[in-house]
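Thread: quick sanity check before group meeting

JM: Hey all, I'm pulling together slides for Thursday and realized we never actually wrote out the predicted structure for the chain we discussed last week. Dropping the sequence here so it's in one place. If anyone has concerns about the input, flag it before I start.
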Amino acid sequence: MRLFQVSLIAAVAFLFAGSALAVSSGKTVEYAGGATGKVIFDGKAHADKGLKCAECHPKIFPMKKGMKITMAEMNEGKNCGLCHNGQKAFKSGDQANCGKCHKK
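JM (edit): ok, ran it. Output follows.
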């Protein structure tokens, strides 16, 4: 019986370990952005628009550290550019929008 309890606790901990890496709706995460400045992802700004984590994770963005995203990929409609295409959300490729994500 004791082995069953320990196994159950370990299984639950393993299943929820990925959520510990997620950015909750009240938090931000920063990415290096090169010469244009760091990129700040704001979970609250997205939640305030009615979005849920599961709309992007893991189908668009896998839950892993060190993911590289380029502007070229976004301009092709990949990653953030899937929604930030000028129809669903502001277009990431427009110069006027750079400061919405990039901060110097």
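AS: nice. The first helix runs from residue 2 to 16. Helices lie at 2-16, 43-48, 71-75.
JM: adding both to the slides.
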